[in-house]
Design goal:
- This protein has helices at 2-13, 16-33, 39-64, 71-91, 96-113, 128-150, 157-180, 192-196, 198-219, 223-241, 249-255, 259-270.
- The two termini are 36 Å apart.
- The protein has 271 residues and is mainly alpha-helical.
- The radius of gyration is 19 Å and the shape is globular.
- The protein has twelve helices and no strands.
- Helices cover 76% and strands 0% of the residues.
């Protein structure tokens, strides 16, 4: 049991799980747009997500405590280095046009972690409302526009609707994290739950899910796809309803982040 916990903790803390969630969103987009799918792009997105999330989570820690890092963090550092090398390898296989599109998203991710505001004391992550918008924007850009751009398809209204839906879905998936962290966030960090309260935050999430459902009918009125989406939405709705300050890190960092993976698997099975 202890070994299993060690493996799960590493799987979550090393950002493998969130990377698999982002990878799943890419595959879902390819499914909706009927794209062949690029192996290089998929692997690039996976390793880039691990690299970006570990950079955001551990850059400050490594800088301050580099001489006394725990074995656990050192292993994550080594793992991240391997992922950086693999990311660079698969990035070399992408087109110049795709790389140019990635540049501003990469810059946003960098500024999300590195302090450059208020005398280099704050980063974009420390700005409550901006934080959730940046994360949702980057996820929508990487998982919707990037596969379309890489496949060189024409940007249609359906594509923009998928991007809007993806943006809103990511916002909803972030809400359980913000609810969990209400008691830990700094007073000045005005996240949605801290500003409007947990009950109203959940109601906001429910409203956004309804909008996402309406968008689903506009994107692709396909019976099988809508059935799968309804299952996905029901799972998301339940997880949001059950969110609270008392939930463990596994609730949001594992269960909530599993939702895109479940959606992709359901599409493979049912649709």
């Amino acid at each position: 049991m202890k070994l299993f916990k060690i493996i799960i903790d590493f799987y979550i803390n090393a950002s493998i799980h969130v990377a698999l969630a982002v990878f799943s969103f890419v595959r879902i987009t390819e499914f909706y747009l009927e794209l062949t799918g690029s192996e290089s792009l998929g692997y690039f997105v996976f390793y880039a997500t691990v690299t970006a999330y570990n950079f955001v989570k551990y850059a400050g820690v490594a800088k301050l405590y580099h001489r006394s890092l725990t074995t656990h963090l050192k292993i994550i550092q080594i793992f991240s280095l391997v992922c950086i090398l693999l990311m660079c390898f698969y990035m070399s296989k992408l087109s110049v046009k795709t790389l140019l599109f990635l540049a501003p998203l990469g810059l946003l991710t960098f500024l999300y972690a590195i302090p450059f505001l208020s005398g280099f004391q704050k980063n974009l992550r420390s700005i409550g409302y901006l934080k959730i918008i940046i994360v949702a924007t980057v996820w929508a850009g990487i998982t919707v526009f990037l596969p379309a751009l890489d496949s060189e398809i024409i940007f249609t209204n359906s594509l923009y609707l998928i991007a809007l839906q993806r943006f809103l879905l990511v916002v909803v998936l972030i809400l359980p994290f913000d609810i969990r962290d209400v008691q830990y966030d700094a007073v000045l960090l005005q996240t949605i739950p801290k500003k409007i309260g947990i009950k109203k935050t959940k109601k906001l999430g429910y409203s956004l899910l309804v909008i996402c459902l309406l968008l689903e009918f506009a994107i692709k009125p396909n019976h099988e796809l809508i059935t799968v989406f309804l299952l996905f939405m029901a799972i998301t709705l339940i997880l949001l309803m059950k969110s609270s300050e008392e939930k463990s890190k596994y609730y949001s960092s594992f269960l909530v982040e599993s939702v895109p993976i479940i959606w992709w698997v359901l599409l493979l099975i049912i649709a």
